[in-house]
Design goal:
Number of domains of chain A: 1
Largest sheet of chain A: 2 strands, antiparallel
Oligomer: homodimer
Structural class of chain A: mainly alpha
CATH architecture of chain A: Orthogonal Bundle
CATH class of chain A: Mainly Alpha
Strand order of the largest sheet of chain A: 1-2
Largest interface: A-B, 52 and 52 residues
Number of strands of chain A: 2
Shape of chain A: globular
Helix content of chain A: 55-70%
CATH superfamily of chain A: Farnesyl Diphosphate Synthase
Radius of gyration of chain A: 19 Å
Distance between the termini of chain A: 38 Å
Strand content of chain A: under 5%
Chain lengths: 320, 320
């Protein structure tokens, strides 16, 4: 049976750090593409355990390597680089976050939950395989995230406490007190309209918690101090909410071709959304304000925070 | 939002160790009852985070606190005690193993998988709640197991490496290379009969891996040496298989009242089982031999291994 492997570092520590020179002409599109490629390579290497993958591994790879924006792992790397961290060292945490995000998509798409047919521009996992395989592929990606983190950490005793904190943050954000509770509340909201406060709280759990953990884990792995951690938290909370408000807006006026999934589904399911509660114009103004707050939280950082700043703007103005 | 809590140790280290005097008149039934009670109390305390539990927590508690034999956590404690370990220190690992076992039962029982209506003498989680809640309650128990281990370990830096190894063993045993792969193979076996070698391999993954991890984690937390670890492994492999052979036998001739679930289901589903491949009498002889092997593996240990020995015999002669 294959075991978890991890890519060796191909470059010295220097090469994995961002310099201010790199950022003078900051090009977000190129940055996102470069980071996504690095993450995709690492994820592919983790799953490349057999020449002829069995059905379970096929389903895990199908969902995990289907593209996607890779926002969470990129946030993790960008937060580390903001305080001069070594992004190679942070890469396992970044991959774990994407594996957990993907597992949550597989399970949320199931017929018993959101019953979605398309995801990331291809049939959802249970459509391409079957329900049982999709449930187990999700379970396996969740478990593999923790296995990968633990097996890397076991070989780095001097970093053991740091990795344990990463496991703690990610599991807390992904679990009962975070993402899973958010999905429960989201499903319940199809039966009963939410107030604005309830909607915010639901999103903070469902999407916000893992986004906050992404930023936090990157920062912690890079040796963040207690003042900085508060700035990162404020940034992450604001972009987490901005991400969701924008998602709701895109569900109203997005292009399903570009998004790789259906639009108008929130209204069909009678879901409480920001556009439904605030109207479309005010939702956009709210999302803008959140991005402003996120940018303000980064005021004390230098040019190395440019990727985080650009991601905040991108989250609001993306079209998928 | 509630966070994970952990029971403080109520007694000094001495009180958590087994003495040879305790074992002169070894009474397995009382031992199992005592340990199960301790585990049940610890599990209840972990989930007792709110006076009015929400629906997700209700479903998690419903499945986790429904009884069950608690064989995995008891094996974990008994392995530690065999080499003079402090069972209070091992208790979190024991609880994590039971949480993961329970999550696997919830998911395996789903309509898309084994589609079972009864479990541990009560309706399965998706029958008592609904499918979506059952999927999420399983996800949440799996995630909580790792969260609990990490948050305990974060506060014990001197034990960080030990806890990371525990997380690694458990996630490896529960994941793609272990239990989840076993469930995939088990489902596939309904379509296509297995050979004896394939059947053994499937069970080693589906049930054996987590049983082996239970014994191993208990032993490692207690500071096992490399000679001893091999004995523990041989013991665990043999009881793991004996457990499954006995399960198959009970599915033929067990009492559904006592077992709290239906019997005869393997034949209905055309599953390859030991009785189907070897016949009932030879299956029993095989299970007996496995228990003999398990007992022989413990020869070098003193009376403190009595619980492990008695559990090996019990696994073969249980009626549920």
């Amino acid at each position: 049976m294959p075991t978890v492997r991890w890519l060796p570092s191909h470059s010295g520590p220097k090469a994995n750090r961002v310099t201010n020179d790199d950022l003078k002409m900051f090009d977000l599109k190129a940055y996102l593409a470069r980071k996504a490629q690095r993450i995709n390579q690492a994820l592919a290497a983790i799953l490349k355990t057999a020449d002829e993958p069995d059905r379970l591994l096929q389903a895990m790879s199908y969902a995990l390597l289907a593209g996607g924006k890779r926002i969470r792992p990129i946030l993790c790397l960008a937060a580390a680089e903001t305080i001069d961290g070594d992004s190679q060292e942070v890469l396992p945490a970044a991959c774990a976050l994407e594996m957990i995000h993907t597992y949550s998509l597989i399970h949320d798409d199931l017929p018993a939950m959101d019953d979605d047919d398309m995801r990331r521009g291809q049939p959802t996992c249970h459509k391409a395989f079957d329900e049982a395989t999709a449930i187990l592929a999700g379970d396996a990606l969740l478990t593999l995230a923790f296995q990968m983190l633990a097996s890397i950490a076991v070989n780095k005793p001097e970093q053991a406490s740091k990795w344990l904190r990463v496991i703690e943050h990610i599991s807390h954000a992904a679990g009962y007190c975070g993402m899973i509770q958010g999905q429960m509340l989201d499903m319940a909201s199809e039966q009963k309209p939410l107030t604005l406060a309830e909607l915010k709280s639901m999103h903070r759990l469902k999407t916000g918690a893992l986004i906050e953990a992404s930023v936090r884990c990157g920062a912690e792995m890079a040796g963040v101090n207690s003042d900085q951690i508060q700035m990162f938290e404020r940034y992450a909370q604001n972009i987490g909410l901005a991400f969701q408000v924008t998602d709701d807006i895109l569900n109203v006026e997005g292009d399903p071709e570009i998004m790789g999934k259906a639009v108008g589904t929130d209204e069909q399911r009678h879901k409480t959304t920001y556009p439904a509660l605030l109207g479309l114009a005010e939702s956009k103004a709210f999302a803008d304000q959140l991005v402003e707050n996120a940018l303000a939280a980064l005021d004390a950082f230098d040019q190395k925070a440019e990727p985080l700043r650009a991601i905040a703007r991108y989250i609001r103005h993306r079209n998928r």
